[in-house]
Every structure is written in structure tokens, then in C-alpha cells.
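Researcher: We're teaching a course module on how sequence relates to structure. For the next exercise, students receive a sequence and then see the predicted structure as C-alpha cells, so they can try to spot secondary structure elements on their own. Here is the exercise chain.
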Amino acid sequence: MKSRYAFLASLLIAAAAQAHKPSDSYLALSVDGAALRGQWDIALRDLEFAIGLDADANGEITWGELRAKHADIAAYALARLAVRADGRDCGLTPTGHLADEHSDGGYAVLRFEAACGPAAPASVEVTYSLFFDLDPTHRGLLRFEWGGAAQTGVLSPERPTLAFRAGEAAPLAQFLDYLREGVWHISIGIDHVLFVLSLLLPSVFVLRNKEWKAAERFRDTFWDVFKVVTSFTVAHSITLSLAALAVISLPSRLVESTIALSVVLAALNNLKPVVAERRWAVAFAFGLIHGFGFASVLADLGLRQGTLLLALVGFNLGVEVGQLAIVGTFLPLAYALRDGWFYRRVVFGGGSAAIVLIAAIWLVERAFDLKLL
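Model: And here is the predicted structure for the students to work with:
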């Protein structure tokens, strides 16, 4: 029995390192006649891992340390980006370096120009491979402006190349890009997944005399899950939209710390039930905070409103598809196993305890800016 608890805990601890905002860079390209210019925002934490920025190893990257690495950053990044115009390779030249702050920390900003030829191009192709050899979860979020219109795309190891044509907007392709990104985001957002699972674990039980008893009808379980998932969906959709549209903004540390706290409380409620009949209200309340966590990807992309709305709808639907996949996989299995000791003791009891432990570590890390795992 103890070995099973230890195994479950080890799986959660191994996943804990992924419970942060996914690695993204923000690439903006614009075509103005024959000129093609770019700006590339790359996370300092990613560059530190790849090429080293913190010269004195004190855990802080100063402007002086960053400036000393400007040439290395440009060489490293531009070697992993290829731009072709009308089938011809464009030479990429750095033109400036800045620093910026995004929702998840500091970023190096690399500005560059692409020499593609004397005439305005009719088509542009972008191939991207930054950090793919180091982190297969990394994504390049691309904003491409041409003739006053903006298009977007997501570059990944599975889809490293995107093509654009003058005067050609592809709203369906952009929508599908962000729908896939939403599914991906929930699949690697371990904190969001564990919050949902913490709410789902007791769904196959009913609380009687302060003890969890196996539910007698699947219909009751289904409606309990429906209320919880719908409440969470409505809540995080509200704040995801408000944050992505820059109506409301909260500090990243506050959001991430509160998300970790929500996981702790949801899992503790399984071990010592306080809220049983109105878990949908808990899902709604904390879902409002989780929406700010989901929004960081879109808020940092800096899209214009028309393009942002398309990306927002696609991304939000992708999150829901991923969430429904989790529910659809978990619920039938949990209901089938609800009467047995394995579900009650290992999955429900041991799983809830392990989630409390991991989420408590996240809470300390995020609240006090520490690295424990």
C-alpha cells in the first residue's frame, strides 16, 4: 500500500516542474513595401538556460550582464529563424537590443531587419526552431503585419513553418492555430489539471455523516460533474476574455500563487470535507483566477482587437476541448472503481494528499519567488 502512495507521489513530483507558464517567445514581423522588419521577445530564463546570462551566478540578470551578451543572443536566435520571400532566402541583421517585462518575467528584445530583395514580396515563409532542441513544449507566437492587416500563428516542433501571402487573410487557419494552442495549454498546465481533478475526485461519492459514500446512480454523478465543469468554464472564460482584452490586469505572482492555493484547498476539501453540495460555487470562484492564468499567452502577444477576438475564441474553445477530454477519460473510470479500496484509498485519498503536498510547494515557490523543485 505504502509503495503505491509513494509511486503516485513521485509521479506528481515529476510533473510539478511543469506547473508554470509554458515557454513562449513573441515574434512580430511587418512588411512595408520591400522592407521587412522584426522584433523578437525571448524570455531571459530560457536564454539563461541555453547560453548563460548570469555572469556572477547570483540568480539575477542585470542590464549590464544582458548587454554583454547581445551579440551572443542575436547569433543564437537568428541562427534559428529563417525567412524566405518569394522563395528567396532573406539575410537577417540585428538592429537593436532592449529589455521588457511580460506577465511571467523579464524578456530580451531583439530587433532585426530582413534583406529580401529590391521589390515588395508577394509571399513570405517563416521557419522557426528556437529552443526546440532544449524544450519540445516551447512555442513561438507570431504576429505578422502586412498592409495594415495582422495575421497570427503558433510555431511549434510539429509545425515549425508558416507561410503568408500579400492581401490574403486566413481567419480559419488562425482560429485553428489557437484552438490547438488552447488544447496544448491545458494539457501541460498541470496546476489547472490538478484543480479540475481535485473537484472531480469526490464526484462519484456523496457525503453522509461527514463521510464519503459511493454514489448509487451515475445520473447524480453526471449532473454533479456538469455543474462543476460548467461553473469553472464560465468563470475562467469571463476573466480570460477580460484579461486578454486588457480590461483587467492582475500581477502574475498574485495570480499564480492564488491558483496554487486553489489547488491546495480543493484537495484538502476531499480529505476533510467542508464544502460538498456547492462545489460548483468553489469551481466558479477559483475559476475566475484560473482565467487570468490562461490569458497570459494572449495578453502578451499584443494583438489588435479584431485579430485578438479570433484568437481568444479559438484559444478558449481549445481549453474547453482539452478539459472535456480530461473529464471524459476520468469520469467513467472513476465511477466504475468507486466502490473499491483502490479508488477510495489510493486514487481519492492518496491522490488528494499528494496534490495538497505538491500544490503547497507551488504556493511557497510562487508567493516567495523561490525554487524548491
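Model: If you want an answer key for the exercise: Residues 2-18+189-368 form one domain. The mean pLDDT is 87.
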